[in-house]
Amino acid sequence: MGLISLDGVRDKNVMQLKKLNTALFPVRYNDKYYADALSSGEFTKLAYYSDICVGSIACRLEKKEGGAIRVYIMTLGVLAPYRGLGIGTKLLTHVLDLSAKQNISEIYLHVQTNNDDAIGFYKKFGFEITDTIQNYYTNITPPDCYVLSKVIAQVHPKK
């Protein structure tokens, strides 16, 4: 287990994220995705297993009315040979811990309705299906997605 490390995404290694996304997802991401990922700071991470880049989580920070910030997980993925080693867990736990410390009220994401593995994974962490969006995806079947959300309990530092 000790072989997993996380690293931030910066201009100099954003190509790693692009390569992973090409391998992992049926969707091609645009420049805005990468701009959002870079501007989310610590909320976007690459995961390394024995120094090989094998996974990532990319988030977008969204301001809600009243100043609350919520986190949208744009992508979370681990290359197939490296699944089941705790890498996805480490990536998601990083973002959950960071959110609790930074006064973030909610985390949400979209998952294709037939992606039982992903749905089961997020449910283990307390995410719930809060909505279904028809025809969310173009060019992939099924085109529908679930919205999974988790309300974050705030960590209040001791006075």
UniProtKB/TrEMBL annotation:
InterPro entries of this UniProt entry? Acyl_CoA_acyltransferase, GNAT_dom, N-term/lysine_N-AcTrnsfr
User: Mind telling me which Pfam families this protein's record contains?
Assistant: Acetyltransf_1
Gene3D superfamilies, A to Z: 3.40.630.30
SUPFAM superfamilies, alphabetized? Acyl-CoA N-acyltransferases (Nat)
Q: Where is the N-acetyltransferase domain?
A: 4-153
User: GO biological process: what's one of them?
Assistant: mitotic sister chromatid cohesion
> What GO molecular function annotations does the UniProt record carry, in alphabetical order?
N-acetyltransferase activity
GO cellular component terms listed in the entry, alphabetical order: NatA complex
Assigned keywords, A-Z:
Acyltransferase, Transferase
Query: What name is this protein filed under?
Result: Probable N-acetyltransferase san
Report the source organism: Elaeis guineensis var. tenera (Oil palm)
Phylogenetic classification of the source organism: Eukaryota, Viridiplantae, Streptophyta, Embryophyta, Tracheophyta
